[in-house]
């Protein structure tokens, strides 16, 4: 029996759990009589024909590893001349019957457009930010929250010892999921997120109230995309755009810390967690979620449910249209922020 060949790629920023998804796709595909071809560096590998056969042996020992054995990129075939045609030529030349795209809004938007051009494709949602539509949670989010929570725990003891305010900046370009979850879990004294524009005065009130009650340190958690009014209206603090047109964030914690120190006289320090939130081994929960997505993705290929994406709804893994993932950002659940805010100040 000739096997249907399925190409797997990972695109966009890396994310803990990608290897768990790849391993699960390969293992389930074996059961479903599918052959798996790993595409190097996202969509770029499909244009430039860089790939390798993925066997059970090749994916052995990768479940717990961070990064992606396939490499990733932000390459967009629609941004180059003949890009989509080259992708389709590669698929035909290598007799590939289906594609599984693992990625965020960009990678899955490309998948959606390729599907519209007739490519048999399914998706898997990926991002530590947890801001993709169509699914309750994305893998990688739990790991990022765990790392940020551990950091907040550690910062508590040093902040208390020195009677300082520490402003911790976490990832979250457009949403405050990581900030709210890690802030709640770490007992933050204020949390700043994009979804709830805040005035710096509110943060200072929390810090001052604590000081009056004898608690001379505070921990402020801040999403990199937080909207904070520092006196000129609530706005994003951006350092321009990267080569892909993404806003380069980072710096909001510094501005918030500067304002707090200036107004309260309390020594204030900044910690920007950055890429440690994205690197390294996934939590058990992300390994489980990534594996469930991978098994579902292979099942979607086997049952030819093109144009769909594996998603989590409640505790069920289901198939949703690819368009659901990319239609709009999934903003932070306001109920989570409301619970976290009970503990502010
Ligand atoms: N709506 C869109 N339609 C087509 N291509 C898009 C769209 N949005 C982004 N892209 C392109 O998709 C590529 C990958 O997007 P991006 O870098 O945002 O990765 P991603 O998969 O969304 O992961 P991340 O979680 O890191 O954002 C980029 O080249 C980007 O230009
Ligand atoms: O520098 P890069 O790779 O674009 O990644 C930064 C971005 O990655 C994200 O974590 C999404 O994966 C965003 O929160 C952050 O802005
Ligand atoms: Mg994106």
Automatic annotation (TrEMBL):
Residues flagged as site, Important for substrate specificity: 106
Subunit (UniProt): Homodimer or homotetramer.
Binding site for substrate: 127-129, 164, 171-173, 224, 269, 275-278
HAMAP family in the record: Phosphofructokinase_III
UniProt keyword annotations, A-Z: ATP-binding, Cytoplasm, Glycolysis, Kinase, Magnesium, Metal-binding, Nucleotide-binding, Transferase
Name of the gene: pfkA
Family the UniProt entry places it in: Belongs to the phosphofructokinase type A (PFKA) family. Mixed-substrate PFK group III subfamily.
Top-rank lineage group of the source organism: Bacteria
Subcellular location(s) per record: Cytoplasm
Top-level class of the enzyme under EC nomenclature: transferase
Cofactor: Mg(2+)
Residues noted as binding ATP in the record, renumbered to the chain: 13, 74-75, 104-107
Gene Ontology biological-process annotations: canonical glycolysis; fructose 1,6-bisphosphate metabolic process; fructose 6-phosphate metabolic process
PANTHER family named among the record's database cross-references: ATP-DEPENDENT 6-PHOSPHOFRUCTOKINASE 3, PHOSPHOFRUCTOKINASE
Function summary: Catalyzes the phosphorylation of D-fructose 6-phosphate to fructose 1,6-bisphosphate by ATP, the first committing step of glycolysis.
Protein's name according to its UniProt entry: ATP-dependent 6-phosphofructokinase
Residues of the active site: 129 (proton acceptor)
């Amino acid at each position: 029996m000739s096997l249907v060949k399925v190409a797997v790629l990972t695109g966009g920023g890396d994310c803990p759990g990608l290897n768990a998804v790849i391993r699960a796709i390969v293992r389930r595909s074996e059961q479903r009589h599918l052959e798996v071809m790993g595409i190097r560096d996202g969509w770029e590998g499909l244009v430039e024909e860089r790939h390798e056969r993925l066997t059970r042996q090749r994916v052995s020992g990768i479940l717990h590893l961070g990064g992606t054995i396939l490499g990733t990129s932000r390459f967009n075939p629609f941004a180059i001349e003949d890009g989509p045609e080259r992708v389709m030529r590669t698929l035909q030349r290598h007799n590939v019957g289906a594609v599984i795209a693992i990625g965020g809004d960009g990678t899955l938007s490309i998948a959606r457009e390729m599907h519209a051009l007739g490519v048999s494709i399914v998706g898997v949602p990926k991002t530590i930010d947890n801001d993709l539509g169509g699914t309750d949670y994305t893998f990688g989010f739990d790991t990022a929250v765990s790392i940020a929570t551990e950091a907040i725990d550690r910062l508590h003891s040093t902040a208390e010892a020195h009677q300082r305010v520490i402003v911790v900046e976490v990832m979250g370009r457009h949403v405050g999921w990581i900030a709210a979850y890690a802030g709640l879990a770490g007992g933050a004294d204020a949390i700043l997120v994009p979804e709830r524009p805040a005035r710096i005065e509110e943060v200072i009130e929390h810090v001052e109230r604590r000081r009056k009650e004898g608690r001379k340190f505070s921990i402020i958690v801040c999403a990199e995309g937080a909207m904070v009014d520092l006196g000129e209206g609530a706005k994003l603090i951006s350092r321009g755009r990267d080569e892909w047109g993404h806003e380069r964030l980072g710096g909001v914690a510094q501005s918030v810390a500067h304002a707090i120190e200036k107004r309260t006289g309390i020594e204030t320090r900044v910690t920007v967690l950055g890429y440690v939130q994205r690197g390294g081994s996934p939590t058990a929960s992300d390994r489980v979620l990534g594996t469930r997505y991978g098994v579902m993705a292979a099942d979607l290929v086997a049952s030819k449910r093109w144009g769909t994406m594996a998603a989590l709804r409640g505790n069920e893994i289901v198939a949703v249209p690819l368009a659901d993932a990319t239609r709009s950002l999934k903003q932070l659940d306001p109920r989570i922020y409301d619970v976290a805010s009970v503990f502010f100040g």
